[in-house]
Each structure stands twice: as structure tokens, then as C-alpha cells.
């Protein structure tokens, strides 16, 4: 695929079985309960594929238990598939769409993750992405019976070493290392194609060779959602898609410029990282209908459940009173919290209004209007470099999603900013991202598919490390 293709909008969905609205599962027409159903999930993802979406995203918050277990029964989040198992099943139920699984770097081992993702990439024909998270929730550590003692920045540091090691494992075989088994000599793969990993790092160690061929995409596509300074640096070094939360165009543009400007120091180009803010939407056949839908969405939000605002208990303050200006900053999620406080100040919001405008949509953008209005609003951010794409948060599944696919996607296609057919095969190709070469293949005599081997040309390609 040409790297010079016309810039295209990317569309994806943060998939939740019933939708993002907290009460989505309680509607009378929804058949809720029972075991998680593969068919229900497959139906959602097939709808996205019909809409030519780039990918479906599956979040995962390990350790909902621990201190949170008491509040847990109120949500269906306690009953959903582990993302990589789900992606494996969905790979067989779809043909084109990318499938992005969240995997935590604190409570996993690089070898297992590298092997699982390589397997998924082969099973799906190169359609897999990895949302790299390091989970700060207290319950997560308790779930695994560990106290890792790592603070926010150290978790990002460990995540960086984790990703470095998984990359080495994926590079531990040349591309095409298993393409030419020699039946006569009884040699399945040339030993020279193997590059065993010897890693001694600050957090991790391994002496290993991966038990599977290098992924079709080289590496799965890396996703991340950092908001802090260390999070954005991590994204600039590793991520190829970053999630963001912004409600206004200037906010989105500032984030866009900030993360893109960080790439150069890691030898990357601005286009190597796509910025995809979250998007809530209310579509009507007329503006009035859309506005009514938005009003009914607001009325259905349980404002009392939002009283714990980013871990801050606001219940001592009157709901319709002003947002206190002297609240302590939370240890985690500081970036979002600052955004919320700035919004409250800018628009002089009450606590109730701040919950409705910000907490209920996790600080994401809300668009309301006809399909043409919504397509115009998306195009505006896309053209003015506030976003390379959007990660949709449909309130109610299936109807919000059906509306977007049936009504808004054709408008975006008419504008020529969104595909009418899948052109590429892999998720990288959908997103216009380069395939990372195996550093061991940067050698004279290596074929395009990487078959043939020698020693790496540079020390950086070596698979030994001794970080202290
Ligand atoms: C759209 C979106 C999806 C996210 N999905 C997950 C997830 O599935 N699991 C998780 O542990 N954290 C998830 N996060 C949280 C981020 O990984 C990260 O911890 C958060 O954005 C704070 O970043 P910071 O620590 O750099 O400020 C998500 C964040 C966003 C904006």
C-alpha cells in the first residue's frame, strides 16, 4: 500500500455489549443476563465491518475486585470475555476489520503476551492490535496478590521494558523463517534465521526464542491512552494509535500537536501515530429529534452515581451548587480531572451539570445533530488536525451503532474522507501505518520477505541487553 495515500479518517468503536450508557442493559427490550454470548459480540463487530470501520476495541480492566467489589454488582462489566480469547473467536467470524485487545503489562509475562498476540495476528490474517495498559487501580494488584510497589511513572517504565522485550521476541525469527522447509535435508527452518533473546533488564529477564513465526504485521499495532506527561512520552515512543479525550477543538488540537511533536525525539514521524479521541453522538433525522435524544440521554443519567468524581467524594456539596475550587487533585487520572475543572470554571457549571457534561461521557466530545451535521463536525476536527479518527462510544447497542453505520458513514464517504471498501488486508494497512522491519533483516543479502540470515548490522539490532 502506498504511504502517500490520501489522508483518511479512521473509525473505531469502544465496544461494550449493551452500549456505553450505564442503563443500556436495563431497557425493557434488552435481553440481558446469562453467560456472555459470542453471537451478541459477533453481531456488533459484523455491523462495524459492514460500516467499513478500521477496528473494534475491547477494553479490559483487570482487578475490578478488591476494594471495588461492593460497587461491582451494579454493572454488567463483571461478566464479559477476556479480550484475547474474544479476538480469537471474532477473527473467525469476520474478514476485514481490525480487532484490538487490551493487555496489561503489570500482571503478565512478555513471552506469554508475545506468543498470544503473534498467534492472534496469524489467526486473523494480520488484523490485531494491542492496547497497552499498565493499570493503576488498587484492585488490580490485589487481584494478583501482589504489591508491586511501583508508582505511576515506574509502571510506564516497566511497560516500556515489557514492550521492548515483546518486540525482541517477535524479532527472534526472521520474517519468512519457516517459509522454505528443506525436506531433503530434514531442516524445517534455518538456524541462522533464529535470534534468541537474552534480556536482563530492570524489571524483566528472559532467555527465549518465540515458538511462532514473526507476526504478519511485524508487530501487532500498538495502542495506548496516556494522558500524563510520561503517558504521552510512552505513546510517542511506542504507540501507533493513541486514544484521547477532548471536548473542544482547541483542546483536541493542543493534545494532537503535543503528542505528535514528541515523536521526533524517538526518530519517528508525525504520521506514525494516529490520534483518535472518543466520541459520544446523538443522531436524529432532524436537529430537533437529535436534540430530544440528547435531552433524554441527560435525563436518564443517574447523577447521584457520579458523586464520586475521579475518586473525589462530592456528596457533601449541593448538587446544584458550584463546583468547589479547592478540591484536592487525584493521584491518578490527573489529566482528565484538570480538564473537568477547567470546564467547570470556564462555564461556571454546577456539580450536576459537570457530571452530565463531563463525568457521564468521561470527558469525551458529544456531537448532536442530523447525519450531515455530524459528518460535518467530524470532518472539521479531522481537517483542522484535532483528530486522525474517532473512537465511537455508542450509548445503546445496537440502535446507536446502526444509526451511525446507516446514516453517518455514507455522509463521510460522500465527502471522500472515509473508505467505501476495505483496500488493505491488515490493520496496519487500514490505518496507513508502516510495517516494522525485523532489525535482523537490515542486512545485505536479505530478501524482501527476510529469508536468509547473517549477523545483525548494528548493536541495536542485537537481542541482548543489560539494563540496570
Ligand atoms: C478510550 C480509553 C480506553 C482505555 N481503556 C483502558 C483499558 O481497557 N484498561 C485500562 O486499564 N485502562 C484503560 N484506559 C486508561 C489508560 O490506559 C490510562 O491509564 C489513562 O488514560 C491515564 O493515563 P495517564 O496515567 O498517562 O494519565 C483507557 C483510557 C481511554 C481514554
In short:
By secondary structure, the chain is of the alpha/beta class. The protein has helices at 38-50, 69-72, 83-91, 110-124, 138-143, 152-170, 229-238, 249-261, 287-299, 334-347, 351-357, 371-383, 399-414, 427-431; strands at residues 10-14, 55-58, 98-104, 128-133, 197-200, 205-208, 221-224, 241-244, 274-283, 308-309, 312-313, 365-369, 389-392, 464-466. It is globular.
What does the model show?
This protein has 14 helices and 14 strands. The two termini are 41 Å apart. It is α/β, with parallel strands linked by helices. It folds into two domains: 306 residues, Luciferase-like domain (TIM Barrel), CATH 3.20.20.30; 71 residues, no CATH class. Flavin mononucleotide binds next to β4.
Question: Which features characterize this protein?
Answer:
globular, 468 residues, 8-stranded parallel barrel, 3-stranded mixed beta sheet, binds flavin mononucleotide, 2 domains
Amino acid at each position: 500500500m502506498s504511504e502517500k495515500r490520501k489522508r483518511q479518517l479512521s473509525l473505531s468503536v469502544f465496544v461494550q455489549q449493551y452500549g456505553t450508557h450505564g442503563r443500556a442493559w436495563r431497557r425493557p427490550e434488552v435481553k440481558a443476563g446469562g453467560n456472555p454470548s459470542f453471537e451478541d459480540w459477533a453481531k456488533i463487530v459484523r455491523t462495524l465491518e459492514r460500516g467499513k470501520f478500521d477496528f473494534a476495541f475491547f477494553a479490559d480492566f483487570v482487578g475490578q475486585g478488591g476494594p471495588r467489589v461492593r460497587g461491582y454488582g451494579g454493572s454488567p462489566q463483571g461478566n464479559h470475555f477476556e479480550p484475547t480469547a474474544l479476538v480469537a473467536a471474532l477473527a473467525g467470524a469476520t474478514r476485514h476489520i481490525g480487532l484490538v485487545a487490551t493487555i496489561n503489562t503489570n500482571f503478565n509475562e512478555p513471552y506469554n503476551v508475545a506468543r498470544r498476540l503473534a498467534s492472534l495476528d496469524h489467526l486473523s490474517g494480520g488484523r490485531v492490535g494491542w492496547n497497552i495498559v499498565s493499570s493503576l487501580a488498587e484492585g488490580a494488584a490485589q487481584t494478583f496478590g501482589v504489591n508491586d510497589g511501583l508508582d505511576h511513572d515506574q509502571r510506564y517504565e516497566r511497560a516500556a521494558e515489557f514492550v521492548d522485550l515483546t518486540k525482541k521476541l517477535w524479532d527472534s525469527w526472521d520474517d519468512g523463517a519457516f517459509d522454505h522447509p528443506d525436506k531433503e535435508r530434514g531442516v524445517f527452518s534455518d538456524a541462522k534465521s533464529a535470534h534468541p533473546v537474552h534480556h536482563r533488564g530492570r524489571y524483566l529477564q528472559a532467555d527465549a526464542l518465540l515458538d511462532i513465526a514473526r507476526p504478519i504485521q511485524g508487530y501487532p499495532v500498538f495502542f495506548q491512552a496516556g494522558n500524563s506527561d510520561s503517558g504521552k512520552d510512552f505513546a510517542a515512543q511506542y504507540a501507533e494509535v493513541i486514544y484521547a479525550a477532548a471536548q473542544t477543538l482547541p483542546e483536541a488540537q493542543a493534545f494532537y500537536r503535543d503528542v505528535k511533536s514528541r515523536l521526533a525525539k524517538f526518530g519517528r514521524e508525525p504520521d506514525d501515530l494516529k490520534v483518535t479521541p472518543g466520541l459520544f453522538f446523538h443522531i436524529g433525522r432532524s436537529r430537533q429529534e437529535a436534540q430530544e435524544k440528547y435531552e433524554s440521554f441527560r435525563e436518564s443519567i443517574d447523577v447521584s452515581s457520579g458523586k464520586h468524581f475521579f475518586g473525589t467524594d462530592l456528596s457533601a456539596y449541593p448538587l446544584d451548587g458550584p463546583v468547589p475550587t479547592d478540591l484536592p487533585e487525584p493521584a491518578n487520572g490527573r489529566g482528565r480531572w484538570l480538564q473537568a475543572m477547567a470546564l467547570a470554571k470556564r462555564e461556571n457549571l454546577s456539580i450536576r451539570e459537570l457530571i452530565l457534561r463531563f463525568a457521564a461521557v468521561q470527558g469525551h466530545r458529544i456531537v448532536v445533530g442530523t447525519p450531515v451535521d455530524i459528518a460535518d463536525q467530524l470532518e472539521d476536527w479531522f481537517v483542522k488536525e484535532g483528530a486522525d479518527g474517532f473512537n465511537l462510544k455508542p450509548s445503546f447497542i445496537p440502535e446507536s451503532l446502526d444509526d451511525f453505520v446507516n446514516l453517518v458513514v455514507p455522509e463521510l464517504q460522500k465527502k471522500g474522507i472515509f473508505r467505501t471498501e476495505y483496500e488493505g488486508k491488515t490493520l496496519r494497512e487500514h490505518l496507513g501505518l508502516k510495517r516494522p522491519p525485523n532489525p535482523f533483516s537490515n542486512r545485505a543479502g536479505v530478501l524482501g520477505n527476510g529469508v536468509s540470515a547473517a549477523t545483525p548490522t548494528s548493536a541495536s539490532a542485537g537481542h541482548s541487553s543489560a539494563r540496570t
